[in-house]
Amino acid sequence: MRATKSWIAEYADLPAGLSAWQLADALVSVGLEVEQVEAIGGDVSGPVVIGRVVDFVEEPQKNGKTIRWCHVDVGPEHAPKSPPAPLVKGGEVPELRPSRLADARTSGSAEGPGAYWPRGVICGALNFAPGDHVVVALPGATLPGPFPIGSRKTYGHVSDGMICAEDELGLGDDHAGIIVLGEVDDEGNPWTIGAPALEAMGVSDDVLDMPVTPDMGHCLSVRGLAREASQALHVAYRDVIAHATPAPSQGGHPVVLESEACPLFVALTVEGFDPAAESPAWMKQRLSACGMRSISLSVDISNYVMLETGQPNHCYDADTLQGAIVVRQAKPGERITTLDDVVRTLDEADLVITDDRGPIGIAGVMGGEDTELRDTTTRIVIEAANFDPVSIARTSRRHKLGSEASRRFERSVDPGAAYGAARRVADLLIELGGGRLAAETVAGEVPAMPVQTIDAGLPERILGMPVAADRVVEILTASGVEVARDGDTLTLTPPSWRADLVDPYDYVEEVGIKVGYEHLPSVVPAAPVGRGYTTEQKLRRAIGRALAASGFVEVLTFPWASAADADALGLDADDPRRRTVALTNPLAETAPLLRTTILPGLFGAVARNASRGADDLALFEAGRVFFASETGEAAPLPSVDGRPSDEELEAIERAIPWQPRNLAAVLTGAWMPAGWQGAATLASWTQAIAFAEIAAAVVGVRLERRSAQQAPWHPGRCAELVVGEEVIGYAGELHPSVVKAFDLPTRTAAVEIDLDLLVSLFDGAGVLTPVSSQPVAKEDIALIVDESVPVADLQEAVVAGGGELLESVRLFDIYRGAPVPEGKKSVAFALRLRASDRTLTDADAAGVREASVAVAVERFGAELRA
């Protein structure tokens, strides 16, 4: 919501000298947020004055453009010392006569007392005539940009200033022509030639730009902002709504309400309106400051009153209405062409405005083109209605059609303002465009507001600071709440513009905001003795730190998923990852599901980075995934009026999806970049498996790897990661079809493991061992085995034989070829041996070596290679 300080000041008696920023601070103190304060005309400096066009001549140019060489009277204080170049009309040079002052002051002119010369100015606009009053920026002025103004030669003349358009002064977006002022200002006084223009026009103002939260919908209006400002600053407030809603009547255009989603509909008829009447400058300026462009007087008045009162309204051409106005739900297949020239097919849930021919407007969202105002409209029916917020919000979203009206209705509009706002529109149409109020219809009535009873001490107990009962009554009364007090019991009826005041704690919040949250005591709760992170939390954090220290970068992606993700991943029809949970109200229609795997989110992060030239990536994420229950039972939506029943709670519990934590990573590009030390090391399945091994090492378990087939990995390049009998995940190179579907770099590798399962394997014994001060002994062995023997299994045999003196085993070579027989391979391991209490002898080392080889021989028929 954008609003000018001067507009707010019309309805709240702001203190003299109050700056716009001080007003912003006051509004922030009562719960609003002010993003910025803009000064209209604040970027304009130097002489910018009111001028009068004395005469001009049009001069066509070689580039096809026509410019005007003008003589402009800017007053004696700004007149040049010598006359400008003459105008040449039809080959003749008219005599240039100096202007004269009524008080006979001189300006250095040689033409006698009281005489002064106009300035010569080049102008490209064609929307003015001799005698028109204009805005002139003189040499020495600076316009927004910044754009300094000086005398310069152009198009064969010295242009001694610039005649300004609206956008050049930062007053709006209109650049079609220069500003042409009427004969008199808004107060009916003649313009003073040479006077400061922005001050004379009354456009110097400050604009407050405020995002309005859904619970403060009444502040989407100058009326609401002025009310909040008056309460914050303790000043008087005047309501722009000057008329209460009368009893229902059908004295004007007939209206029929057929839907409970419209409790009130006001229709006023104005006749004799002059469609040629123009919007006054003050109205155009305020609309422009609030982000709206001027269209026509009738449309401008409609928008002006909406901004002022917060009540959206709509004007129909009365001569185009056919029969009674009916408010009802749309029928299947009905269509309407809205004011944006789009043909829309309506849904049965849409609330529509109709006449005998069918829909003429989507209620609360946008009108139809069949009944829109035209250049010849003289009879106008003004609509101001109240609609159900949920219905309007769903319709707006369904048709992807947001408007200023729907934005307000979605946040609840004051039903008590409908009639008063309609009368405000009618009064302005009559005042500015002639005509008369011919008839009025009021269908329905203002809905009753919910009554609530609270204990006067409730705000103090909840807020945790002293708030006397009298202060509570004072605050709520100033907020428009009707308060009936009976001892310590308060019976509260909110005003019609406060639909957010429903339960007792809404009133507590209102009191807290108006008292000021900055006065709330800061009390830090004491941590219970002996409590802290759980073992699982510590392990998860340790895993994240270890992975980050190893070169992986942690990211957070959204947990939403697309229905197409499962197909893109190549999942089988019975894959558990297809058992998704659908969101009732997704943030995006393209991602209406909760994820069952972290990988698609990481794929998206990789694709975005790669599209920006970042190809060397090792991204990982730890987070929850969500699996729908096998029964597919949906959770019930219990009423908010009371506690859910035991049956409802059990149904909710059954419908809660299984939500394990997963850990996943995606690798692309170079793991180690090329440099003086050699070529780049490409990221591949080896780093993907190392990722899982690092996580397992933190927990103190050892991973086994075996070949597997699992989407979305390449069938021949996928490893199943196992701890004991538990499969905790998969790692390897992605299938080419998956790489293509998600627009990933070729040969992208990925890994995903069940983090909860991995953490559960921690045996509680700890994973840290003291560092021995004894020296290490090293032994190497090379074993010849069949090609079919997995290296991991062979290494496990070596470890099993090594016993407690074997500190580590590292594979350092696999060899095929002579003298190793065909069909076999030589696998070499480096053994590190150490005792905690003594130095190992040669005999000790040889014993460990022989024991390791013995187990390998026993299990796989290995031969020790000489």
TrEMBL record:
Q: Where is the FDX-ACB domain?
A: 772-865
* Positions annotated to bind Mg(2+): 500, 506, 509-510
Q: Which keywords annotate this record?
A: Aminoacyl-tRNA synthetase, ATP-binding, Cytoplasm, Ligase, Magnesium, Metal-binding, Nucleotide-binding, Protein biosynthesis, RNA-binding, tRNA-binding
- EC numbers for this chain: 6.1.1.20
The reply to whether Aminoacyl-tRNA synthetase figures as a keyword in the UniProt entry is: yes
Q: Which GO terms describe its biological process?
A: phenylalanyl-tRNA aminoacylation
**In the UniProt record, does the keyword Transport occur?**
no
Q: Where in the cell is it found?
A: Cytoplasm
Q: Name one GO molecular function term.
A: phenylalanine-tRNA ligase activity
Q: Which residues form the TRNA-binding domain?
A: 82-192
User: For this UniProt entry, what is the primary localization, expressed as one broad class?
Assistant: cytoplasm
Which cofactors are required for activity?
Mg(2+)
Question: InterPro entries per the record?
Answer: aa-tRNA-synth_II/BPL/LPL (IPR045864), B3/B4_tRNA-bd (IPR005146), DNA-bd_dom_put_sf (IPR009061), Fdx_antiC-bd (IPR005121), Fdx_antiC-bd_sf (IPR036690), NA-bd_OB-fold (IPR012340), Phe-tRNA-ligase_IIc_bsu (IPR045060), Phe-tRNA-ligase_IIc_bsu_bact (IPR004532)
Q: Name one GO cellular component term.
A: phenylalanine-tRNA ligase complex
Q: Which reaction does it catalyse?
A: tRNA(Phe) + L-phenylalanine + ATP = L-phenylalanyl-tRNA(Phe) + AMP + diphosphate + H(+)
- Pfam short name (any one): B3_4
Annotated B5 domain ranges read 447-522
Q: How is the cofactor bound?
A: Binds 2 magnesium ions per tetramer.
Q: Which HAMAP family match?
A: Phe_tRNA_synth_beta1
**Protein's name according to its UniProt entry:** Phenylalanine--tRNA ligase beta subunit
Which gene underlies this protein? pheT
